[in-house]
Amino acid sequence: MENEKKREPRDNAVKKPRFFYSARRFLRNLIPKKREDERIFERVPAKLTIRYRNLRSKEWGLLQTCDISAKGIGLLSAHYLPLNTPLEIWLPVPGRGESMYSRGKIAWSKTIWFAQYRAGIKLDRPELVGLLPILRQRHSYSS
Questions:
Q1: Is 69 buried (19+), middle (13-18) or exposed (0-12) by CB count in 10 A?
Q2: How many domains is the chain partitioned into structurally?
Q3: pTM of the entire structure?
């Protein structure tokens, strides 16, 4: 007992205000976490407006895409999309005037700003493989 060191309270310790931790958490959500990307298919940046139908609530809406891969779509939304929500999706094909139909579920969703959400849809089947070369070509022209 005599050999154990006792910790004395430090008077010079700065106590951080509570809002500091909220701001830090907010900034952490804005910056994507660096981790090994285990995707088989590449992500192609694409800003398209897709039409969707929520199969649970039967509501229709529009979403903005950020990126697209053969197995998924990255989205920006003005409202929260709960995990595992099944969706029907109509994705416009650039330059063709038609839409591709697909189904999927919300794989992840997070708040990035007050009324802005970022979400990812995991598609049931890799149906967008044929669309990726068109989007890749379109992205290379716009860069």
A1: buried
A2: 1
A3: 0.64
Which domain does 57 fall in, by range? 41-142
- Give yes or no for a contact between 109 and 117, defined as CB atoms under 8 angstroms apart: yes
Cα angle: 66, vertex 76, 46; to 5 degrees:
15
Per-residue pLDDT at 136: 62
What is the residue-averaged pLDDT of the chain?
A: 77
Identify the CA nearest to 82 among candidates 58, 56, 62, 61.
56
The pLDDT score that the predictor gives to residue 97 is: 80
User: Is residue 20 domain-resident?
Assistant: no
C-alpha span between 1 and 24 (Å, rounded): 40
In a domain, 22, yes or no: no
Report whether pLDDT(83) > 90. Answer: yes
Phi, psi of 135 (to 5 degrees): -70, -40
81 falls within a domain: yes
Q: Using the structure block, give the residue that is written with the tokens 């022209």.
A: 141
What is the C-alpha to C-alpha distance for residues 104 and 71, in angstroms, rounded to an integer?
9
Do residues 90 and 101 lie in contact, with contact meaning Cβ atoms separated by under 8 Å?
A: yes
pLDDT tier for residue 33 given thresholds of 50, 70 and 90: low
Q: Does a structural domain hold residue 21?
A: no
